[in-house]
Design a protein that fits this description.
282 residues; alpha/beta; Rossmann fold; Pantoate--beta-alanine Ligase, Chain: A,domain 2; 2 domains; six-stranded parallel sheet; 9 strands; binds adenosine monophosphate
């Protein structure tokens, strides 16, 4: 397992693999890896001859008041995890390697980014689409792996790859959770012990919503109102959004009459956490 910091080194390694006729999987991450990331690496290892993990806290996808500076970083820990899960190469560029002086080209998306995190974090998906496009061009993978934990991101990337004829397969992987239900996230490390307990309202609300859907409830207002009252009962929680959208367009719907996504974003203290379920998965 190698760690490289330049685009040229990635290209050289991938070229050598291609000469041998090997397939390549890419797992884009912002590092501080946990079992959620590991599940993506495992899947790539299973489906490809070689796996590249990008480990890059992408400044472009953070808003001015967000946690770019405090975002946790630990490349040694990440290297051990990637190696243990069969990854072959970590691409860990400095921001200047990805965004040289005078950088001025962007990949952006309309409709799918209008709701949910796109509404709360206006510059986020432009940063995500731009960096993921760059990673696809640098690594030229056969397949790329994304978690359903970031469900809107997965939908946006699928749509981008399709719209722009990107020659690779996008694979979505299930949410990995802590034993008590909290979705694993690098941002969970921000939580104090009291906040960690309070953060359980997210997975509890998701369970409540998916149970209602499983029981046949299709009225979006009824489902989201019940979820909102559960979350509001937790004093440390502040709702950003609790919504149900069309899984393809990410636009709000009044009734669940098609494949849909129920997504929530909740501040626990200062930490913004997300969780979701697809109605197809309940
Ligand atoms: P991040 O480093 O948070 O940008 O995440 C990198 C990738 O890992 C994204 O595709 C995420 O959706 C995925 N991921 C993060 N947490 C989880 C989780 N708990 N379960 C599954 N995938 C995850």
């Amino acid at each position: 397992m190698k760690i490289v910091k330049t685009v040229a080194e990635v290209r050289e390694q991938v070229k050598a693999w291609r000469k041998e006729g090997l397939t390549v999987g890419l797992v884009p991450t912002m590092g501080y890896l946990h079992e959620g990331h590991a599940s993506l690496i495992d899947k790539s290892h299973e489906q490809n001859d070689r796996t590249v993990v990008s480990d890059f806290v992408n400044p472009m996808q953070f808003g001015p008041a967000e946690d770019l500076e405090s975002y946790p970083r630990d490349i040694e820990h990440d290297a051990a995890l990637v190696e243990a899960h069969g990854g072959d190469l970590i691409f860990n560029p400095d921001p200047e390697e990805m965004y040289h002086e005078g950088f001025s080209s962007f990949v952006d998306m309309t409709v799918l980014t209008e709701e949910l995190c796109g509404l709360s974090r206006p510059v986020h998906f432009r940063g995500v689409c731009t960096v993921v496009s760059k990673l696809f061009n640098i690594v030229t993978p056969d397949r790329a792996y994304f978690g359903k934990k970031d469900a809107q991101q997965l939908a946006v990337i699928r749509h981008m790859a399709d719209d722009l004829n990107m020659p690779l397969e996008i694979i979505g992987c299930p949410i990995v959770r802590e034993a008590d239900g909290l979705a694993k996230s690098s941002r969970n490390t921000y939580l104090s012990p009291d906040e960690r307990k309070a953060a359980l309202v997210l997975s509890k609300a998701i369970k409540l919503g998916s149970d209602l859907v499983k029981g046949g409830e299709t009225d979006v207002k009824k489902i989201t109102d019940e979820m909102k009252s559960l979350i509001s009962a937790e004093p440390l929680a502040r709702i950003d959004y609790v919504k149900i959208v069309d899984a393809a367009t990410m636009q709000q719907i009044p009734v669940i009459d098609r494949p849909s996504l129920c997504a929530i974003a909740v501040f626990i203290g200062k930490t913004r956490l997300i969780d979701n379920f697809f109605t197809e998965d309940v």
